[in-house]
Amino acid sequence: MTTILLGTTDKQLQMLRDRQDVMGKNARTEIRRRKMVGYCDGTAIETIDPKAEIVEPESTLGTVPEREYADGVRRL
User: How far apart are CA 53 and CA 29, in angstroms?
Assistant: First the structure.
């Protein structure tokens, strides 16, 4: 493990964790280590506005989309 990642913020580690190289592996290891010791610097915490309106998409369950058929093709 590199000592460079000890000084990085949680948000920077979250950006590095998806990389598929040694740096990404070390970032994932550092995230795991910080979780085990209970360390959090607060930079990666996402806040949710409690007054924001919740918009749910309209369900399309049970509907059949209209299909366009080429000339000469019969619909069954």
Answer: 37
